[in-house]
Amino acid sequence: MYLIKAEVAATEADREQGLMFREKMAPNEGMIFVFDGPATVCMWMKNTLIPLSVAFLDSAGTIVNIEEMKPQTLDSHCGKKNGGIRYALEMNANWFKQKNIKPGTKVEGLPK
């Protein structure tokens, strides 16, 4: 089990800002994006200076898919459950891979 210290981005403004302009992030820190309900969700890295991994989660907190994102790009990285993503958890690049966390893993303690 891993303890993550994640900032919560629950408002539209917080989700739009995300982790833009940050120069570093501690090893077990991240940001959890909370959407109003299950939705089709895509993320990009405009003005984001550090490489990140994003896990897309359903309403039950189960990881649907994980994507690696390069800094300062506009490439879309989307949840693979159309209309079924409730959360997106951004961590430092390769964090999930290093911890052997894969799709199907359940994340506990998510904000409601």
Features:
mainly beta, 5-stranded mixed β-sheet, Jelly Rolls, 112 residues
Write a structural description.
The chain has 112 residues and is mainly β. It has a single domain, classed as Jelly Rolls (Sandwich), CATH 2.60.120. It is built from 2 helices and 7 strands. The strands form 2 sheets. Strands 1-2-7-4-5 form a 5-stranded mixed sheet. Strands 3-6 form a two-stranded antiparallel ribbon. Helix 1 links the parallel strand 1 and strand 2. The model has no long low-confidence stretch (mean pLDDT 97).
Strand content: 35-45%
User: Could you name the CATH topology?
Assistant: Jelly Rolls
Q: Considering DSSP H and I runs of 4 or more, what fraction of the residues is helical?
A: under 10%
Largest sheet: 5 strands, mixed
Shape label: globular
How many extended strands?
Answer: 7
Spatial strand sequence of the major β-sheet = 1-2-7-4-5
Mean pLDDT: 97
Concise description?
By secondary structure, this protein is mainly beta. It has helices at residues 12-17, 95-98; strands at 5-9, 29-39, 42-43, 52-57, 63-69, 77-78, 85-92.
How is the secondary structure organized here?
Blueprint: E1 5-9, H1 12-17, E2 29-39, E3 42-43, E4 52-57, E5 63-69, E6 77-78, E7 85-92, H2 95-98
Parallel strand pairs: 1-2
Antiparallel strand pairs: 2-7, 3-6, 4-5, 4-7
